[in-house]
Design brief:
With 400 residues, this protein is mainly α. It is built from 16 helices and no strands. α13 (280-301) runs antiparallel to α16 (372-398).
């Protein structure tokens, strides 16, 4: 019996309890999404503020992403025996402190450090949140439950990111971190009130959580996220410059653009949760191919303003559709160690974030233009699809 199944059997939850608990977790996702994605729209402002070029400022995003990569396995592993609610509260507290420290960063190196600190609890929080949500619903509804937690991340791109982008442009980019700090405090209050007391998962231990790392299918699933999402983030990291320099929009229109991207994420997240419950691997195959095709189309049409708006919505939707399937797949291939495996999904996605920001900045520096990252991203998406197909074939061969 898996830890996830045991937790579901010992902690039955009413629909109202589930709804309020998921809402509390989604608010945390809202804050995380706001700080992660608003940096893309404010990247030129940050670059001016700390006196570096835009490609160099992109490394600030990479620093946050690397914090996620390091923090997810580390924090989950050392807290394996901690009650899940307590762990979720502690992780949100660390996230809030890290963002408030960024308010006071006076130079580029200090900002890199504070963004790394803020990123540490990101993946672990989503991992714990996914396990909590999945443990309170029937197995056939796990994809939808996880997608509802992730909906906070998506809605952040509709409300939080445009608001933070506008405030950052009008009053200074540091106000982004002030807003996120406030959201973090609200999240902790809501979680303390609405999430039922949670015992540590039965039999949980550092050794058992680390057992997930011995499973080849876990690594293949993580690799799908790293490779497949790399180009996706390469595009979005430099969306501000692409939309102004290539599509010809004014900087004042960027909040609308990132808001449109966020609407796409909300739609994609909703659809992704449902197709994950239909077929986890089938949805991964379908969405990875779709991402590759859309990135090519984006590169070819972004210079046309109305097409640029359509494609930014579609890219947001395509990326969000994949996350519930990857999260559910990791739960399926890591019986006995759901928290670490689930957290590692966000390590993988933020390795993709770091890779995308680096590769995107590299091809731009080479003079290939702001559409080049999309073409690189399409290649990476195809490679991610190939890895997913390999994982599926190994599943079939092992079941024979």
């Amino acid at each position: 019996m898996s830890l996830l199944k045991s937790s579901r059997e010992t902690k039955p939850a009413s629909p109202n309890v589930v709804a309020w608990a998921i809402l509390s977790l989604a608010i945390g996702g809202f804050g995380i999404g706001t700080t992660e994605f608003a940096m893309m729209g404010l990247l030129p402002n940050v670059a001016d503020g700390v006196g570096v070029s835009v490609p160099t400022a992109g490394h600030v995003i990479s620093a946050y992403a690397l914090g996620v990569v390091v923090g997810a396995p580390l924090l989950v592993a050392i807290s394996a025996k901690m009650p899940r609610k307590t762990l979720a509260l502690a992780l949100m507290a660390l996230f809030t402190v890290g963002n408030l420290l960024s308010v006071f960063a006076q130079d580029y190196p200090t900002l890199l450090i504070t963004r790394f600190i803020a990123g540490l609890p990101h993946g672990a929080f989503f991992g714990v949140a996914a396990v909590l949500a999945a443990s309170m619903v029937a197995p056939t509804k796990r994809g939808r439950a996880i997608s509802m937690v992730m909906m906070g991340l998506s809605i952040a791109n509709v409300l939080g990111v445009p608001l933070a982008t506008y405030v950052g442009q009008q009053f200074g980019w540091r106000w982004l971190f002030v807003l996120v700090g406030i959201i973090g405090v609200i999240t902790m209050v809501c979680m303390a009130v609405f999430i039922p007391a949670q015992k540590a998962l039965p039999g949980a231990s550092l050794r058992k959580e680390l057992s997930a790392l011995r499973r080849g299918q876990v690594w293949l699933t993580l690799l799908v996220g790293v490779v497949g999402f790399g180009g996706f983030f390469a595009v979005y990291t430099y969306v501000a410059n692409t939309m102004t320099d290539v599509a010809g929009f004014s900087a004042g229109f960027l909040p609308v653009i990132v808001g449109l991207y966020g609407v796409g994420m909300v739609v994609g997240n909703y659809v992704g949760g449902r197709i994950a419950d239909w077929s986890v691997m089938g949805s991964i195959y379908l969405v990875m191919g779709f991402i590759a095709a859309m990135l090519v189309l984006y590169a070819a049409t972004v210079h046309i303003q109305w097409m640029a708006l359509v494609m930014i919505f579609v890219i947001g939707a395509s990326g969000a559709m994949l996350i519930p399937s990857l999260q559910t797949r990791l739960l399926d291939v890591s019986p006995g160690a759901p928290t670490l495996a689930s957290s590692l999904n966000h390590s993988a996605l933020n390795m993709a974030n770091a890779l995308g920001a680096f590769v995107g900045g590299l091809v731009i520096t080479w003079g290939w233009g702001f559409t080049a990252p999309a073409m690189v991203g399409a290649v990476l998406a195809v490679l991610g699809l190939g890895i997913a197909l390999l994982s599926g074939m190994l599943d079939k061969s092992s079941n024979k």
